Amino acid sequence: MDKTILKLGSGWRIAYEENYICREYADQIRDIASLKEKKLPEIPASVPGNFELDLYHANVIGDPFFGLNPLAMQDLENRHVWYYNEFELSAPDGTEYIKFEGIDTIADIYVNGALVRHTDNMYLSYEIGLPDLKNGRNELVVHIWPASIAAREFRLPPSSNAQEYAYDSLYLRKAPHMFGWDIMPRIVSCGIWKPVSILRRKADRIDDAFLYTTGIDPAGRSAAASIFFHVDVSRDLLKEYSLEVEGICGDSRFYFKKRLWHTEGHFRFWIQNCKYWWPKNAGEPNLYETKVNLYYKDELCDTYTVNFGVRTVELDRTNVTDEEGHGEFCFKINGKKVFAMGSNWVPVDAFHSNDINRLPKALELLDDLGCNITRCWGGNVYEDDFFFDFCDRHGIMVWQDFAMGCAVYPQERRFFEMLETEAKHIIKRLRNHASLVLWAGDNEGDYAYQDWGGIRRNPDKNIVTREVLARACEAYDFTRPYLPSSPYITEESYVGGKPTSEDHLWGPRDYFKGPYYNTTVCHFASETGYHGCPSPESLKKFLSKEELWPCFKENGLSKDEWQVHAACMELLPDVAYSYRIRLMANQVKTLFGKTEAQDLENFAKQSQISQAEAKKFFIERFRASKWRRTGIIWWNLLDGWPQISDAIVDYYFTKKLAYHFIKRSQNPVCLMFREPENGFLPLYGVNDTTADAEVSFTVKNITEDGRLVLEGEALLPADASTRIGELKLKDGEKNFYLIEWQKDGGTHRNHYFTNIIDIDYDAYLKALEKCGFDEFEGF
User: Fold this and answer.
1) What superfamily in CATH does domain 667-771 come from?
2) Class of the 205-308 domain?
3) Is it true that the peptide bond before 550 is cis, omega within 30 degrees of 0?
C-alpha cells in the first residue's frame, strides 16, 4: 500500500457566500489570496465535517435539529463554500498525490492556484496526482458549489419521476435522503465529509486484489478459490516479478507464489482443511487473514491485506408467488438455505461526517439483537469499511442497494455514464467482504417506474437497473446475485399481476394484525415497520417545552414541531409526510381504545407498546412459518436525526420497548405462538441453529395470577419450525401468556397477548411488570 506522508485533519477554514452575490466571480477564486480579497464570511472548519455543523459550532446558526430549525437549513441551499488550508512538504519527488475519501458533492479542487480536479459524486474517493508541489508551504482550496443550484444545469427527460422534494436529486450523485424523505429532514448539506491525506505512490505496487470462492466441497472440507490482481510496475520486463499469497485462519492455511506474466490476471488455488464463512446461527464467520505480496526478485515491493471469507452465495428466487406459496426467495450460503432476520440500515446521521462516530455503537446494537442480515437502503450513502469489517467478523449478511430510491432516474446516456463510474468504484471497494451477499439496483424504483408517473409502465424497460448496473455487476463482481430493484417487478409480475416473492409490507399501517398484515403472501419481507414514539426525555431534547404536549393543535392538526420532526419540511396540512403523527396516534387508539392516554408519558408508553407488539408479530409470523417464509428485514434499528419514526432506538441511542421485544423474538431458539386456529392457539418452537435443541417449557396465564396452562418437553429439529403444543382459547379472551423454556441450562422467555386490540392499558402494564418486561427507557 502507498505510504501516507501527511493527514490533513486540522488547520481548515471555510468561507461562504450566497450564490446571487458571488456567482459572477465564484470560479475566479483559485487560491487563498483571491479568496481573502472578497472578504467573505469565514469560520474554522472540521475535516471530516459538514458546513452546517461548522456554522453551528461557530454560533452562526442554532442547533440544526432543535424545534423548527430543520426548516431553516433550506435557507443555506444557495451557499458556495470554500474550504482552504496550507500544508508543509519537504523534498517532494513528484510521486505525491492527494486523496479525498469523500467530498459532498460538486467541487473544484485547487492546489497552489491550479485546478487539479472537478468532482461530482459524494460516494467516490478521488486520488489526484500532484507532480508540481513546492518544497515547503503549499495551498489547498476546495470550492463546493450549491448542489441544488448545480442540479438546474441538468435537464431531466419527462420520463423521470421522483418524490416531491427530490427532483433536484435525480442527476446528483449525492445521498437521496438529504433532499427530504419520510425518515430524514431536507438538509442538502455539503462538506469534505471524509478524511484527506497526502500519500506517496510506490513505483511497484498492488493496485487491486479480488479474492473469491469458486466452489466448495463440504465433505472433503476443501474449497477452490481465485485471486484477480492488478499491479503497477516500474520496469519493462516482468520475469523477475512474482506474487505471493498467504492466508491463515486458525490451523488452516493456504499459500502459493507465482511469477507474473502480465500486470493483471487470475491465479486459481485450493484450500484444504478449509474453514468456511457462515452467517450468524448457521456456523462461524471464519476469515482468513490474507497477505498478497508483490516481489521484484527477492525484494518485497508492496503488500495488500484482506480478510477473506471462503463461502458461496446464491439467491434462489422466483418472479412471483401465490397464497399457496408456489414461489421462493431464499439466500443460500455454501449451498445451505439461511433464514434471514434483521434490520434495514438507514442513515446513522443526517450529517455523514458524523457517521464514523456513531457506527460502532449502532453495529453493537445490530449484533446484540441477533440479526444475521442488514439491508443497506438505497437512500443512504455506501457505508464505511468499518461497517463491512464488523459484519464480516460477526456473521451479518449485507444486502447492498445502489444509492437510488423511490424514483425513475434519467434514462439517458449522461446519467448512465455517471452511474457506471460510481458502480465500478463501489463494487471494487466492497467486493472482498464475505458479508456482502447481494447487490440490488435500487429501493422501490420498480414501484416508481410502474405506477408513480400517472401512466402504467413496465419496469423491465428501466435501462438504469436492467442494463447499466447489471453490466457493472457482471463485469466487476460475478460472484454475487444481482437484484434489479427491491421489490423486483418482472415482466411476469407486471403482465400477470401476481404478487412478487419479495415485498415491502407497509400497506395501510392500521391494526398490525388486520387483514393486510395477516394475508400477505410474499416469502421475504425486505421492509416492514410500525411507529413508536420516542421517550419523553428524548423528546425534550429536540422539542420546545410549549410544544411537548399535546401533540395536536385544537383544530386536530399536528403541532408544528411534531410535524417537522416527522420529516415534514413544510408547516402546512396535507403535504408530504404531514400524516405521520396522526398515523401514530391512530395506531395507539386502535390498540388501547377507551384507555388511550391523555398525557405525554403514557402516550409515549402506549405508542412504544403498539410498536413493540407489531414488530414482534411481524417477525414471529415469518419465523414460525419457516420455510414457507424465508426472511424478514424490519424497519428499522436507529434514527439518523431526532424524530418520531419507526426506529426502535432513537437518535440519542435510547432504546424503545420494541428493542427488547425483538431481541427475545430473534432468539436463535425461540418458542412463540402463531395466530389462533379453530379455537386453539398453536405453540411453535423455532430453531435456527445447526443442531437439534432439547427444551422444556411452561406457559403461564399472567392475567390470571400466573396460572400454569401448558408445560412439556420438545426436541426442536435443527433449522426448522416445529409445532409443539396448543392452548384452548376462551371466546373473546384478552390474556397475557408468558412462555418460558430451558435450554442447555439457560432460561429464555417470550410472551403472547390474545385478541390484542382495544385492550386495557393498566392490565397490560401490570402484566409487563410481573414478567419484568416493562423495559422502558427515558421515562
Assistant:
1) Immunoglobulins (2.60.40.10)
2) mainly beta
3) yes
For residues 655 and 635, what is the distance between their CA atoms, to the nearest angstrom?
Answer: 15
Task: Give residue-wise pLDDT tens across range 159-175.
Answer: 999 999 999 999 999 99
Phi–psi pair at 496, nearest 5 degrees: -85, -15
Count the residues in the chain: 779
Query: Phi and psi for 704 in degrees, rounded to 5?
Result: -105, 55
> What is the CATH topology of the domain spanning 3-200?
Jelly Rolls (2.60.120)
Give me the torsion for CA of 551, 552, 553, 554, rounded to 10°: -130
Strand ranges in 297-376 using DSSP code E only, listed in sequence order: 299-308, 313-317, 329-333, 336-338, 340-345, 373-376
Give residue-wise pLDDT tens across range 677-704: 999 999 999 999 999 999 999 999 999 9
Distance CA(514)–CA(471), nearest Å, equals 42
> Does residue 423 have a pLDDT over 90?
yes
Cell of 465: 437497473
pLDDT band at 414 (very low <50, low <70, confident <90, very high): very high
pLDDT tens track for 714-767 = 999 999 999 999 999 999 999 999 999 999 999 999 999 999 999 999 999 999
**Among residues 687, 656, 646, which one has the least CA distance to residue 774?**
656
Instruction: Spell out the long-range contacts of 741-744 with Cβ–Cβ below 8 A and sequence spacing 24 or more.
Output: 741/671, 741/685, 741/695, 741/696, 741/697, 741/698, 742/695, 742/696, 742/697, 743/669, 743/693, 743/694, 743/695
Amino acid of residue 332: K
Confidence (pTM): 0.97
With bands split at pLDDT 50, 70 and 90, how would you rate the model's confidence at 2? Answer: confident
Residue 173's nearest CA partner among 116, 79, 106 is: 106
Q: Residue 606 corresponds to which cell in the numbers above?
A: 402506549
CATH assignment of 317-328+340-531+614-663?
3.20.20.80
Q: Where are the domains positioned within the chain?
A: 3-200, 205-308, 317-328+340-531+614-663, 536-606, 667-771
Report the C-alpha gap between 414 and 619 in whole angstroms: 43
**Do the domains 667-771 and 205-308 match in fold?**
yes
Q: Which residue has 427444551 as its cell numbers? A: 695
